[in-house]
Amino acid sequence: MTLSYDAVADKLASLAKRRGFVFPSSEIYGGAGATWDYGPLGVELKNNVKRAWWRAMVQLRDDIVGLDAAILMHPRVWEASGHVQNFIDPLVECGNCHRRFRLDDLRDGEELIDQWRGGKVDLSDVPCPVCGMRKLADPRRFNLMFKTFVGPVEEEASVAWLRPETAQGIFVNFENVQQSTRRKLPFGIAQVGKSFRNEITPGNLIFRSREFEQMEMQYFCRPEDAPLVFESWLGTRRDWYREYGIRDDLLRFREHAENERAHYAAKAIDIEFRFPFGWKEMEGIHNRTDYDLRRHSEYSGKDLRYFDEAANERFLPYVVETAVGADRAAYALLCAAYDEEPDKEGVRVVLRLHRDLAPYKVAVLPLSKNEKLTPLAREVAVMLRPHLLITYDETQAIGRRYRRQDEIGTPLCVTIDFDSLEDRQVTIRDRDSMAQVRVAIADLVPALRERLGV
Ligand SMILES: [Zn+2]
Q1: pTM above 0.85, yes or no
Q2: Does one domain contain both 210 and 318?
Q3: What's the CA-to-centroid distance between 92 and ligand 1, angstroms?
Q4: Do β-strands 36-38 and 88-93 pair in parallel, antiparallel, or remain unpaired?
Q5: pLDDT band at residue 2 using 50, 70 and 90 as cut-offs
Q6: C-alpha 403 to ligand 1 mean position (Å)
Q7: Are 395 and 318 in a shared domain?
Q8: How far is the CA of 143 from the centre of ligand 1 (A)?
Q9: How far, in Å, from the CA of 134 to the mean position of ligand 1?
Q10: Between 435 and 90, whose confidence is greater?
Q11: 185 plus 128 within the same structural domain
Q12: What's the CA-to-centroid distance between 260 and ligand 1, angstroms?
């Protein structure tokens, strides 16, 4: 790559809007508080990311099954899970300009967080990041869950929360899934779904937003097996990113310090990705112990212990969790795929997305917009559509159209030229190598399938 990696965030932000990957939500009204809409290309990319994850986590394994739990749950779930009590960010308000900040966004924020966790934080000498005055009030506890009401009356008895994580839907269904599928330990439950967090300072496009999609898997095992299970998931998940095009120098593991771990975690390691704006968490792997099942047993009064027939004993399984944001993963995969290289027209922008993730698999392009070429090009498009997600483009010069497909990551282009009218052959062009090969239309579907691995 010839460009600086730091510049990729700006390039992608522009590309995302211009080509229809991501739009600000409610943009004509000025946006809606860091929420995002996925455009025609973005929805394909994100669906492909979710599909790739599901394939690896459910389809290819005999020890993990799927679930799709409701977003609205019984309010006691969030008391049991600890989120009502502990899912808190310290919020600081400036007495001069009245802007609000997360404590860790202030100068020496990490240190301030440590002090806050210790019970006492001194902000008397900390300047406001906006106006510079030293008038920051003591931090206030701010729960990140969105509160709403079920039914027509807004009263405490009808409070519901938009889930801040999908995991709890899995814990409360542990017994349903285990018994309906007759599973024995160890086994996992995987889920993809929306979660909501009322972030004080969202930002960096889809990196941190208030409404996001999670891909979570909870793996239930015997307590003594949890450390080994934890280690094996580290490698399994790193391999997944590798398979889908994230180089090793863009990934690292970071273990949470004891005072940094979530309230449920005995051990936590982030898989961090080197975003253009710094190393950031992409996925969390947590040993949640039996915390969640124990708490749900207590709060619901239902015994959630697992009965091990062979050992003739009853116990609460431990849980090792892998949790990744679909939006964040999609963003990381875009960053890793973005490339520019010099060419005779200036710069060729290429999204080197893995073929399984690319929004369109094939672009069908007549050499020029011509009344003789169009019917055959359309015939080829109609032939391909049942097999692959394709796009059809006949405006502008062919070179420009290749560049337009490179920029959105389309792995293959199929070009119909004047020879095609005579010999019923077309040209397949490869995005990465730009190599071209001539193929009979009759053989086109298998030829494309072979190159796409589908
Ligand atoms: Zn201020």
Answers
A1: yes
A2: yes
A3: 10
A4: unpaired
A5: low
A6: 47
A7: no
A8: 22
A9: 8
A10: 435
A11: no
A12: 28
